[in-house]
Design goal:
mainly alpha, 0% strand
């Protein structure tokens, strides 16, 4: 576990000085200003190659330990609405719980800090605004990075590998908190660390309950894509989305 964990940390440090996107290898505070379809396509291809590289390293690391148990890295499409382990049920429930908790957290922070953290929290999303609504190509590329690559790569690494590995040494609640803490550090977004930490905890418990990566992947994808699609819709209706973000 430790060699691959060091690889995750090292890769995050290296990427902090270069191009990255919105979540962990797509860390929000590292995304440069993008203003053209060519730059959007380049961003997507860059993150695709990074995702393939990370998952390939994970595969090579786990190859000597084959065959893995059936519930490790499992993607179970059957019974999506099963009340006990259905991935749609748990992904939807996780979204409701996470969004409610983060909404209440934002209200608390707003009342205590009177907007002092607002610029820090929205700076990352402001960097994304030039791509949103620029064209169908840029929006699709952005959704590809945030709605597909980030959820698949991050959930495989942090929930499928890291959380599962930690449970071999620590109780489940502590393992979920530790994996969420590393998930938060990987984002390198200090202004949103509480939100990301809470989101990571909910993702961890959703995965531990279902033992199915589809649940946290779908939850993560809906969370990321929902923000982008909502802003794109508002912009198409003539709204100033910068005002909403601020």
């Amino acid at each position: 576990m430790m060699p691959y964990l060091m690889n995750i940390v090292f890769t995050g440090i290296v990427e902090s000085s270069g191009l990255a996107g919105v979540q962990h290898p797509y860390s929000e505070n590292m995304l440069p200003q993008l203003h053209s379809n060519d730059e959007a396509i380049k961003l997507f291809m860059d993150q695709l190659l990074k995702s393939v590289a990370k998952l390939s390293v994970l595969y090579m690391f786990l190859l000597p330990h084959q065959p893995l148990p059936d519930d490790i890295f499992s993607l179970k499409w059957r019974q999506p609405l099963d009340l006990h382990k259905g991935w749609i049920i748990w992904a939807g429930s996780g979204l409701i719980i996470a969004s409610s908790a983060i909404f209440l957290l934002k209200l608390l922070i707003s009342s205590l800090c009177a907007g002092q953290t607002q610029n820090e929290q929205t700076e990352s999303l402001m960097r994304l605004l030039p791509l949103i609504g620029l064209s169908n190509v840029s929006t699709v590329c952005l959704l590809g990075v945030l709605g597909v690559l980030a959820p698949v790569c991050e959930e495989t690494l942090y929930r499928g590998f890291l959380l599962t590995s930690l449970t071999k040494w620590f109780p489940l609640p502590l393992s979920v908190c530790l994996s969420s803490a590393l998930f938060t550090l990987g984002h390198q977004s200090p202004g949103k660390f509480l939100e990301i930490f809470i989101f990571g905890i909910v993702l961890g418990f959703v995965y531990s309950r279902t033992r199915n990566l589809l649940a946290p992947i779908i939850m993560h994808a809906c969370w990321n894509s929902g923000v982008i699609l909502l802003l794109a819709y508002l912009q198409s209706q003539g709204h100033d989305i910068q005002k909403y973000v601020q």
